[in-house]
Give the backbone structure.
Amino acid sequence: MIDLKPVYGSADFKTVFEQNKVDSGIEQTEQILSILEDVRLNQDQALLKYTELYDGQKIDKLKVPVKYLKESYDNLESELRSALEFIKQRIENYEMKIKHPNLDLDEFKYVYHALEKVGFYVPGGKALYPSSVLMSIIAAQVAGVSEIHVVTPTFTNNNITFATLYICGVENVYTVGGAQAVAALAYGTETIPKVDKIVGPGNSFVANAKRLVFGQVGIDMIAGPSEILLYVDQTADPDAVVFDIFAQAEHDPEARTFLISESADVLETVREKVRERLVDQVRSKIIEQSLNNNHYSITGERAELVALINYIAPEHVSIQHQAATEIISQIKYAGAVFKGNYSPEAIGDYVAGPSHVLPTNSSARFSHGLNVNDFLTGHAVIDINSDTYQAIVDPAIRVAEAEGLYCHAESLKIRKEK
C-alpha cells in the first residue's frame, strides 16, 4: 500500500537527504576483486565459467555472429525500425553541434583526438534498452572512435539490442555481463580486446567493478539509481506531473523522486493523484516500492528551493513553473534540465538529442552527462617565438630557482639573448 512520506520544509529535508543518500561504498569488493583477478589470469575460460554460474547460460563462444545482429534488424517491425533510425539521426545532429573544435591561437594550439578503443556495457538482464545503445555509442562514433566493443548479458539471437547495434554499424558484440565483462574490457582476453575507456550503466556489481578498474582504464561514471526532481506550481498539469514521477519510479525500487513547490496545496493535489492513479499502472509494484522508499515532497520559498536543487544536484530536473526561465538561470548543478510541459524527462530518455547517461547521487556537482567530448583526448601544442620568449622567461627562471630546480632554470637561461 502506498505510504507517502510527509511534506518537508526545505531546511528539514536537508537532514533527511543526508541520512538517506545512496551508499556509494563497495559492498561486494572481495567477490568483485576475485572475479577481476580470475578474468585477468584465465581470460575467456573465466568468462565462460561466470556466464554459466551467474547467468545460467552455457555457451562456447563469446562473440555474437554479425548475421544474428542483421537477423534481429531484419525482424524489427517497420515502425519501430523507423523510430530507432529517426532517434539515431537526432542524436548524431546534436553531438556534431557540441563537438569540441581544434583551437589555433597565436602561440598555442589545442588539438583533440578520438580515443582508439572504447568498450560499452549495455544492460540486458531484466530488460532490453535500445535507447542506451543509441545514447552512448553514437556519441563515440561522432567523436571518431575507431574501435567499438560491446558487452551485454543478452543471449537470445533475435532482440532489439542486437538490432539497434546493427543500426549503429557495430560488429564487435560479446554476450557477457556483470563484473566479468568489465574485467574483460579492462584487461583483455583472447576474444575481447583491452579498451581505453569503459562506458555504460549496469547493476551494483558492474558499477563497482568499473570503480575498481579505474586508472587502468578510463570510465564514464559510477551510475547509481535514477532520480528526478520536479519543481512545479499551479500552472503545471498535475496529471502530467504524476506520470513524470511514475516514469522515473518504474525504473527501480531504489529510484528517487523529488517533488518541490512553493505551494503546499499544489503538492497535496499531486500527492492525491499519485494515490489515485498508482493502482492502474502496469509496473505498479515497482512504482509503489520506489515511492515508499525514496519519494520526497518539499515546500519552501523560491530562493530556498533553488538552493536545494543545487544542493541535491539531481540527475534530472524538470521545471514546470511560470517562472521557469528565471529558475533555470540559477541552476548550477544538474545532470540535465527540462523546461516546461513539452520537455518531460521521458523525451530526454529517447529522442531530444542529449545523452540520457547522466550523473546521479549528487555527482552532477563535479561531473556532467555523457557526450561526444568524453570520447576525445586533447593536448596543447606550444609554439612560442623568440620575442615572446625573451618577454616572459625571467619570471619562469625566478620560480625555477626558488623551487631548487636549477637545471630547469639553466634550460631557460641558455636560451636568453646575451
User: Anything to note?
Assistant: The chain has three domains: 7-15+224-352, 29-101+114-219, 384-413. DSSP finds 17 helices and 14 strands in the chain. Residues 279 and 285 are 9 Å apart (CA to CA). The radius of gyration is 25 Å.
